[in-house]
Write a structure and sequence with these properties.
The structure is a single chain. This protein has 200 residues and is mostly helical. Helices cover 52% and strands 10% of the residues. It folds into 2 domains: 21-86, Orthogonal Bundle (Helix Hairpins); 97-199, Iron/manganese superoxide dismutase, C-terminal domain (minor pseudopilin epsh fold), CATH 3.55.40.20. The protein contains 9 helices and 3 strands; from the N terminus they run H-H-H-H-H-E-E-H-E-H-H-H. A 3-stranded antiparallel β-sheet has the order 2-1-3, with helices on both faces. A hairpin with a 5-residue loop joins strand 1 and strand 2 (140-146).
Length: 200
């Protein structure tokens, strides 16, 4: 069963009012994410060890194996982007009660959470991701991973919310201003209801 590009949960122009243009979404979803899916399917087709495995299983199987680095990167990026499209909403930025209470409990305040997340996102050198995860100790934390890696591979905990900080995710709209892109995500685009649902 080949992996497929998921349909966006909104139209390509739905996020424009919140700071993510139709051009960005069409390029990011239709070109970049599609390329990861196509490449991953090509690797799976040629490697019997990958066949029949779920996306998460492929990420774990390929991690730390130099000969499977391209598999890991494309599988990781496919998983990351499936999450990312759901982490965005045109009516984002509003924290539901249960998640807000947990954020205040673990970070001290909503502002402290945003500062920690911004730090993770802006200090990821080069390409990568910033994450809000429920750590294995039961506490929320902001983390980052390089390139196509993610908290599944690092074992850092359960992903609640992720932000793509590869340049292709923000360059059309924010040019080189990654901090502004991150702030816009947290305040206008972040689907905190999705994050709360992932909290369980």
């Amino acid at each position: 069963m080949a992996f497929e590009l998921p349909t966006l949960p909104y139209s390509t122009n739905a996020l424009a009012g919140a700071g993510m243009s139709q051009e960005t979404l069409e390029l990011h979803h239709g070109k970049h994410h599609q390329a990861y899916v196509t490449a991953l399917n090509g690797f799976v087709e040629k490697n019997a060890d990958l066949q029949g495995k779920s996306l998460e299983e492929i990420v774990l199987f390929a991690k730390d194996k130099a000969d499977l680095a391209p598999v890991f990167n494309n599988a990781g990026q496919h998983w990351n982007h499936i999450h990312f499209w759901n982490a965005l909403t045109p009516t984002g930025g509003k924290l539901p009660g249960k998640l807000e209470a947990k954020i205040v409990e673990d970070f001290g305040s909503v502002d402290a959470f945003k500062d920690a997340f911004k730090t993770a996102a802006t200090t990821q050198f080069g390409s990568g991701w910033a994450w809000l995860v429920l750590g294995n100790d039961g506490k929320l934390k902001a983390t980052k991973t390089p390139n196509g890696s993610n908290p599944i591979a690092t074992g850092e905990g359960k992903v609640l919310l992720g932000l793509d900080v590869w340049e292709h995710s923000y360059y059309v709209d924010f040019r080189n201003r990654r901090p502004d892109y991150v702030t816009n995500f947290l305040d206008k685009l972040a689907n905190y209801e999705f994050a709360e649902a992932n909290l369980g």
